């Protein structure tokens, strides 16, 4: 099935996790979130703090995708 998803939600509560990372980590985490949300690409995050932040965010992305799929049907 082709993935037609072209947007995703970014939650205000995630800002705290981002604020704790250096700028380079913020960029990697954002790209990881976007790639996973839009293309379901498994991220490679070299820093444990980035990996931990993504592990907390990932279930929300999965739930949003499930809701989107149901709406799309």
Furnish the topology, listing elements before pairings.
Blueprint: H1 14-19, H2 23-39, H3 48-72
Helix pairs in contact: 2-3
Give me the secondary-structure category: mainly alpha
The main β sheet shows up as:
none
The N- to C-terminal Cα distance equals: 12 Å
Q: Order of helices and strands, N to C?
A: HHH
Mean pLDDT, to the nearest integer, reads: 93
The helicity comes to 55-70%
The dominant shape is elongated
Poorly predicted parts:
none
User: Quick one: how many beta strands?
Assistant: 0
How large, in whole angstroms, is the Cα Rg? 13 Å
Fraction of residues in β-strands: under 5%
H/I helix tally: 3
Oligomer: single chain
Describe this structure in words.
The chain is mainly α. 66% of the residues lie in helices and 0% in strands. Helix 2 (23-39) packs parallel to helix 3 (48-72). The protein is elongated.
Structural descriptors:
single chain, 73 residues, mainly alpha, 66% helix, elongated
Entry summary:
It is built from 3 helices and no strands. By secondary structure, the protein is mainly α.
């Amino acid at each position: 099935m082709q993935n037609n998803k072209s947007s995703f939600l970014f939650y205000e509560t995630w800002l705290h996790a981002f604020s704790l990372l250096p700028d380079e980590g913020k960029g990697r985490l954002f790209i990881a979130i976007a790639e996973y949300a839009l293309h379901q690409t498994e991220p490679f995050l070299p820093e444990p703090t980035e990996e931990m932040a993504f592990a907390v965010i990932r279930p929300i992305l999965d739930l949003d995708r499930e809701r989107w799929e149901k709406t799309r049907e």
